[in-house]
């Protein structure tokens, strides 16, 4: 099945991420996942019996759970995720870097051993 990614959230204290996705049939989900690839708006996620593909390329993504989409749930996840990039994806530095479990910042901010290098 093919899914269009509408939005993303990163959760630095868990090292997991969330994506809002819509199928070609109009089904909306919130995907909770972990992996070495971040689902970004305008990505296409394809699920198949041979794995997960993003924009037609296989990616290392482990889906933890999927929820039916609701605005209330998305806003709750957003308010609890505590990643500065979720509100401002074009940051130059991160005030949460010391507590972040991501090896690579989902928003591209340089990190050195879990600490911002700037």
What's the structural blueprint in terms of helices and strands?
Elements: E1 2-11, E2 16-23, E3 28-35, E4 44-48, E5 51-54, E6 57-58, E7 61-68, H1 71-81, H2 84-87, E8 111-112, E9 115-116
Antiparallel strand pairs: 1-2, 1-4, 2-3, 3-7, 4-5, 5-6, 8-9
If you had to describe this structure to a student in words, what would you say it looks like?
The chain has 118 residues and is mainly β. It has one domain: OB fold (Dihydrolipoamide Acetyltransferase, E2P) (Beta Barrel). The protein has helices at residues 71-81, 84-87; strands spanning 2-11, 16-23, 28-35, 44-48, 51-54, 57-58, 61-68, 111-112, 115-116. The strands form two sheets. The chain has a seven-stranded antiparallel sheet with strand order 6-5-4-1-2-3-7. Strands 8-9 form a two-stranded antiparallel sheet. The radius of gyration is 14 Å and the shape is globular. The model is unreliable at 113-118 (pLDDT under 50).
Tell me the span between the first and last alpha carbons: 41 Å
Q: Largest beta sheet, briefly?
A: 7 strands, antiparallel
The SSE order reads: EEEEEEEHHEE
Beta strands, count: 9
* Arrangement of strands in the largest sheet: 6-5-4-1-2-3-7
Global outline: globular
Which CATH-level-2 architecture? Beta Barrel
Helix/strand/pairing category: mainly beta
C-alpha-based Rg, rounded: 14 Å
Helix content: 10-25%
């Amino acid at each position: 099945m093919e899914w269009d990614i509408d939005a993303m959230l990163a959760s630095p204290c868990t090292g997991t991420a969330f994506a809002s996705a819509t199928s070609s049939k109009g089904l909306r989900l919130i995907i909770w996942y972990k992996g070495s690839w971040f689902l970004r708006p305008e990505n296409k996620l394809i699920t198949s019996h041979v794995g997960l593909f993003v924009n037609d390329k296989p990616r290392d993504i482990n889906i933890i759970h999927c929820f039916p989409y609701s605005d209330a749930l998305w806003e709750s996840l957003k308010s609890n995720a505590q990643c500065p990039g979720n509100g401002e994806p074009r940051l130059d530095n991160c005030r949460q870097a010391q507590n972040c479990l991501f090896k690579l910042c989902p928003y591209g901010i340089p990190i050195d051993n879990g600490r911002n290098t700037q």
